[in-house]
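Deliverable D2.4 — example input (structure tokens):
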């Protein structure tokens, strides 16, 4: 066999092996939340409840919540390690300045995969 043919056979073998191994990998967590088709609205200084639904094939490991232009108050319910379907609830306490805000959730699974989702918030003058 010439060198190019050997290289081609090697690459094809490696490629097929890599493809078959990747079938065993789980998808990263899928995060959804109720969508109203526009930004969620809240008045300055008020609380906006929120809920994210998560499907994590690799099983729950950890999560973090972040508020932009406001403070996130998280539901303190524990999510057992390895859970595959769960919700994360809380409230977004809007700041005193009208304008854009956000609630960002990041979830990591036991396979090391990570996903984030953000709810856009419009903070309105009270």
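Example output (designed residues):
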């Amino acid at each position: 066999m010439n060198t190019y043919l050997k290289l081609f056979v090697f690459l094809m073998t490696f490629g097929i092996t890599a493809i078959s191994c990747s079938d065993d990998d789980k998808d990263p967590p899928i995060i959804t939340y109720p969508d109203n088709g526009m930004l969620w609205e809240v008045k300055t200084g008020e609380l906006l409840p929120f809920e994210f639904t998560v499907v994590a094939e690799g099983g729950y490991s950890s999560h973090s919540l972040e508020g932009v232009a406001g403070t996130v108050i998280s539901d303190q319910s524990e999510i057992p390690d390895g859970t595959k379907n769960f919700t994360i609830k809380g409230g977004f306490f809007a700041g005193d300045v009208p304008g854009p805000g956000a609630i960002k959730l990041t979830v990591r699974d036991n396979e090391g995969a990570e996903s984030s989702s953000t709810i856009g918030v419009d903070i309105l003058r009270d």
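Residues 3-22 form the longest helix (20 residues).
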